[in-house]
User: Which sequence fits this backbone?
């Protein structure tokens, strides 16, 4: 009888995981997300790990607005001390903890969380798109022409453009920056397709960030799937080049909270899990491989 | 949707916008890197803490002083003001990298990128500078 009961419970758990509810994704996923994003602050990481353990184990804790608001305040106050050195998505994760706590205080928890999640995603992308559109060096392609050579994370794309040895160019600039006086000029040799590639990346970036912003800030009642297509296009295009796990996980959790369609929520949950599983620090911790 | 629920839904997005506007002001006023400070200006400009560097050397000998990879130095790269350059000089003195009686100069440097007749040309720039006489009040 016991094994039959266990089997039934396991089946129910699997069904639950395959059809995740909005709140299950948020209340279990957000502590994991927070752990990823506060990992550089060891005392804070320990405090968040203890709080997360309580949240995972005790339903009343993870469904308590006081828990989430206290978590947001503690993390926020701690991060205020080194705010300027933090990546933006780490601060948005703290906003998100506060947003979960506030939604749990609402009369209509679901609608409040949906509205907050949509606004947070939409505003992040809208502001990012405005930055790019108003940056002359981004719009005219200089940003990506320079980045394809200077930023080693883009080296494989630079290789596609046929550019010569980027390491030698980076070394030349480092030498110029270390010289006794400033004003030195270094010519960055580009490949035959560098300008075209840079302009393509420039306008794709502006287009896709604007599309995500519009998708999450407007109702899109007839075609709500468009916002998810735009967000997945952004995540695939971006994280294949620069895998920023913390930001990808944050977007997955907020978008899963936003959608009413369980299929999209499932897709975001899978994305969240995949991003965590391929997270380089986790691999290094498991394998000890530093490469 | 009740007014209360609407306010609860808007609180965090409003905080996000307020911080982003403050960030925009700081970028304009202090030459702060748009990549940091929660203003979502990452990947919009090559002028980031990645392309900014901090150099230090003794005066008048010109002997270079190694600059550690610490938060004080990172802050000077993110917000390249003379006062942050001076903070780096004090930081170097506190760490014993500069001895009493010596004078250290610290510079924060960045780059400007231009297309000169089709060639992508990068020029190094001085963004902030400070000198400190270690063991005295500084200059």
Assistant:
């Amino acid at each position: 009888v016991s094994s039959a009961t266990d089997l039934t419970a396991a089946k129910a758990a699997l069904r639950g995981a395959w059809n995740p509810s909005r709140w299950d994704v948020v209340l279990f996923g957000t502590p994991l997300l927070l752990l990823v994003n506060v990992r550089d602050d060891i005392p804070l990481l320990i405090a968040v790990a203890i709080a997360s353990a309580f949240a995972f184990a005790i339903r009343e804790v993870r469904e308590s607005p006081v828990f989430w608001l206290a978590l947001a305040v503690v993390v926020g106050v701690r991060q205020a001390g080194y705010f300027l050195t933090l990546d933006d998505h780490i601060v948005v994760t703290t906003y998100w903890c506060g947003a979960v706590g506030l939604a749990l205080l609402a009369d209509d928890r679901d609608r409040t969380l949906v509205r907050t999640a949509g606004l947070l995603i939409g505003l992040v992308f809208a502001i990012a798109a405005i930055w790019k559109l108003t940056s002359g060096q981004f719009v005219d392609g200089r940003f990506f022409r320079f980045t394809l050579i200077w930023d080693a994370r883009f080296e494989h794309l630079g290789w596609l453009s046929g550019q010569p040895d980027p390491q030698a160019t980076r070394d030349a600039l480092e030498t110029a920056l270390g010289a006794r006086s400033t004003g030195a000029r270094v010519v960055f040799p580009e490949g035959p397709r560098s300008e075209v590639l840079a302009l393509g990346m420039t306008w794709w970036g502006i287009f896709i960030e604007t599309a995500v912003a519009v998708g999450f800030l407007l109702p899109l009642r007839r075609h709500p799937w468009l916002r998810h297509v735009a967000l997945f296009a952004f995540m695939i295009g971006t994280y294949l080049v620069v895998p920023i796990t913390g930001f990808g996980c944050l977007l997955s959790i907020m978008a899963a909270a936003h959608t009413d369609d369980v299929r999209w929520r499932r897709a975001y949950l899978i994305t969240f899990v995949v991003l965590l599983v391929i997270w380089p620090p986790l691999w290094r911790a498991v394998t000890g491989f530093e490469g | 949707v009740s007014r209360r629920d609407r306010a609860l839904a808007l609180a965090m997005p409003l905080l996000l916008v307020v911080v982003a506007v403050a960030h925009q002001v700081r970028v304009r006023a202090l030459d702060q890197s748009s990549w940091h400070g929660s203003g979502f200006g990452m990947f919009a400009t090559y002028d980031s803490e990645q392309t900014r560097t901090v150099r230090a050397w003794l005066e008048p000998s010109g002997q270079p002083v190694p600059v550690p990879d610490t938060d004080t130095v990172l802050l000077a790269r993110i917000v390249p003001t003379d006062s942050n350059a001076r903070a780096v000089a004090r930081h170097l003195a506190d760490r014993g990298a500069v001895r009493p009686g010596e004078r250290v100069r610290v510079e924060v440097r960045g780059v400007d990128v231009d297309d000169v007749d089709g060639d992508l040309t990068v020029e190094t720039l001085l963004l902030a500078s400070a000198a400190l006489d270690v063991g005295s009040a500084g200059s």
About this structure: Chain A touches chain B through 59 residues (CB under 8 Å). The CA atoms of residues 175 and 184 of chain A lie 10 Å apart.
